[in-house]
Request: fold
Amino acid sequence: MTSLRAFRPTDLLETSLTNLDSLTENYDTNFYLQYLAVWPSLFTVAEDPNGKVIGYGEDTRSSDGWAWLTRGFFLVMGKVEEDPAYLRFSEHYLPWHGHVTALTVAPQHRRLGLAKLLTEVLESGCEEKDAWFVDLFVRAGNDTALPLYRGMGYSVFRRVVDYYSDDPTGRRAGEDALDMRKLLKRDKNRIHIRENGENFRVSAEDIYH
Reply:
């Protein structure tokens, strides 16, 4: 039986094979520790009955949401934030919202509903913090992650052109990111989603980091 728990610093010792997956984005130790220090309630792992971590998730603003760890790791990691006040009158301003930094499920444990379970934990935490929506960034060519996110209720809000500096297909110098969102209870009037978001193009310079 799989169980969920808060991420611990010692879990970083299980990431030695992270870079072996072709879709993995690289993070250093300080990146994970920052999330653990600032947003501990939004950093969750799943363990198998033997206590082995089998999945995790984090903020996909700089990732495609898929990064595999050793020993069958499952994790979700995220944050809540809003753009600075000086950007409030910009059409690209982001209000108080949750953000999935990374969502990871080990290959041998996929298609068991664990990604959905981990994401729901993060979404619940964002609801408690009264966020308007939860968003994530995913590579436009990630045909594995896109159906998963759509199945969990996320839709494309905008396309960020050449957001990623590399294109795994080798066809272009960079790859677009799809900014996907799922509304939370606060947005009763559904003001933070749009139809046909794939066709709404913005540049990476329009995104506040």
